[in-house]
Write a structure and sequence with these properties.
- By secondary structure, the chain is α+β, with helices and mostly antiparallel strands.
- The chain folds into 2 domains: about 1-25; about 30-200, Galactose-binding domain-like (Jelly Rolls), CATH 2.60.120.
- It is built from 2 helices and 11 strands.
- The strands form 3 sheets. The chain has a 5-stranded antiparallel beta sheet with strand order 2-5-10-7-8, with no helix packed on it. Strands 1-11-6-9 form a 4-stranded antiparallel beta sheet.
- It starts with a helix and ends in an 8-residue tail after the last strand.
């Protein structure tokens, strides 16, 4: 490569890298997206508290119909079988004493967030989830994204997900569908979302 071509290559590389960096910098965190078991400052809630962000939209247990979801106690069963709570997220369930069991069936946990001021086509939501028992799917605005977890996901680990479609202007809903085959049930999510803000002229 000649000196001139090398210089051109370097310049083009810098320009291209700058464009990518500029595009990446355009995306900002989406307010209203929270991991399970944290408060509005994304700090861990106390055991037994109501999670203010996740709604139990469907329950198979008549004793615990929702819409409240509870932060599961960090001591005692099912902890030890479940991945331990930490400062990033905590388990939530229809009941804080999840070790006392919930009925078999489907439980749907929904998180609502707004994309007002953002370009919905640029939105990305990604993270990790684990469940008791199996995760049957992640749904964005009634569109199934196809992510699932194993029956014993709760002691296997976290399962990654990344969603780049299905978003719309205004209010959006992301739902985590959990099937409980027996004994305790619960959900744990670590999640992050970002999107490009609308230009001033577009607002």
């Amino acid at each position: 490569m000649t000196g001139r071509n090398l210089l051109l290559f370097i310049v083009l590389t810098m320009v291209f890298t700058g464009l990518i960096s500029s595009q990446e910098r355009k995306k900002l965190p989406i307010p209203g997206i929270y991991s399970t078991g944290v408060d509005n400052n994304k700090l861990p809630l106390a055991d037994g508290e109501v999670d203010p962000h996740y709604v139990l939209a469907q329950s198979s247990d008549d004793r615990f119909p929702g819409p409240e979801t509870k932060v599961v106690f960090s001591e005692g069963f099912p902890m030890g079988s479940w991945i331990q709570n930490d400062n990033n997220s905590k388990w939530i369930a229809p009941r804080a004493d999840a070790g006392e069991f919930n009925a078999m069936g489907v439980y749907i946990y929904s998180l609502y967030f707004s994309l007002d001021g953002f370009k919905p086509e640029t939105a990305e939501v990604r993270g990790f989830w684990t469940t008791d028992n199996s995760g049957a799917g992640i749904v964005i605005n009634n569109q199934t994204m196809g992510y699932v977890t194993d029956y014993t996901a709760f002691n296997i680990g976290f399962y990654p997900f990344e969603i780049k479609q299905g978003f719309k202007p205004g209010m959006n809903t992301i739902s985590f569908v959990v099937y409980n085959g027996e004994a305790p049930t619960g959900l744990r999510v670590v999640i992050y979302g970002e999107a490009e803000p609308l230009d001033v002229a577009e607002k």
